[in-house]
Specification:
Shape: globular
Order of helices and strands: EEHHEEEEEEHEEEEEHEEHE
CATH architecture of the largest domain: 2-Layer Sandwich
Largest sheet: 5 strands, antiparallel
Structural class: alpha+beta
CATH class of the largest domain: Alpha Beta
Length: 261
Amino acid sequence: MRLKLKFQLSGKKQILPLNYQYPISAWIYKVLNRADENFAQMLHEKGYKTTLGKSFKLFTFSKLNFPKHTWKIIPNSDRMQIWARNAWLNVSFQLPEQTEKFVIGLFNEQKAFFGDKISGIDLQVISVEPINDVRIGDLLKVRLQTNTAIVLGVDMEGQKNKQYVLPTDKVYKSLFLKNLIDKYDAIGKSGINTDDMDFKVIKLQTKTNLQTIKAFTSAETKIRGYYYEFELSAPKELIELGINAGFGSMNSLGFGYCELV
């Protein structure tokens, strides 16, 4: 399930940190918490778990968008200046269809602050629109483009941060496909044929995304992801799951939001 959230801003100049993904993620949890504290707490602390105990949050979101010529990156800084009156954000969940109207109601007219201890922007949701569900049909091979960077990493002994893997690394394909299969396991599904699954990077962008999570705190962490276009061969249930919940890891922090080409 995908929703398009449209925001209204004051139009006055405000300063948004480039590391805005964590504040958006925290706001989404806050909105969910108002409706069902137990559900929001489960997502935040535990997530959906595989049979081996690995957990996933199973939601993600797009870049925060502004109209052209209403923002600019401040030179030699980690901030951008915003004077837009409108903004929009796509949020995507792996949830039952019957919850759509309920979730729309949660976000409608909510206020938000996206920022950190130094600066941020104030917004208010003015409309929530469902985005037409992606229908893969019988297609087993699709081409997708990253809207937000995809993150895949491995834990390194003695290091605080993960070692993030390049899409050109030999292990990347197996990590990508295993992550998708693990998500399917986490929603309690099994018995799907994954023998013929395949993944191939079509076009790798030179631009990467290094986000600082929980900036200016003792828990500060840096996460690196990559933008690219890719081809995925898989059962349609897995493709739809990746589109709804995000591809790769760290999806609840806004990584892995992709769109069909």
